[in-house]
Amino acid sequence: MGTAEDRNRLDRRLLLQAAIAIPAAGATVAATGANPAHADPPAMGRSRFDTESPRFALAVLPDTQYLFDADSSDPTPLRATFRYLVTEQKEANIAFMTHLGDVTEHGTEEEIALAADTFKQIHGKVPYSVLAGNHDIRSSTDDQRGDSAYLAAFGPERYASIPTFRGASPDGYNSYHVLHAASREWLVLALDWRLSDNGLRWAQGVLDAHPTLPAVLTTHDLAWADDEGAAQLSNNGKRLWDGLIRGNDQIFLALGGHYWPPGRTVLRNDSDNDVHVHITNYQDRYYGGAGMIRLYNFDLVRGVIDVETFSPWFLARDPADRSPLEAETIELTGPTDRFSLSIDFEERFKGFAPVPAPKPRPASSVMPRGTVAYWRFDASGTKAAGTPGAPVANGARVRDLTGNGNDLTVSRLHSSGPDALTWSDDHHPGQPAHASLRFDGGKSPDRGAILTTAPDAPVNSATFTRGYTIETHIMLPEPFDGDHSWMGILSWEGRNGDAGKTTGWSPLEPTCSLNLSPERFLQFVVYPQAQDADPTSWSHAVPVGRWMHIALVNDGRRTVMYVDGSKIARNPAQPSTGITTLGKPFVLGATQFDEKFGQGFHGWIGDTRIVNRPLPTRDFLTPFA
Question: What is the per-residue burial (b if ≥16 Cβ within 10 Å, else e) of 376-411?
Answer without folding.
Answer: bbbeebbebbeeeeebbeeebebbbbbebebbbebb
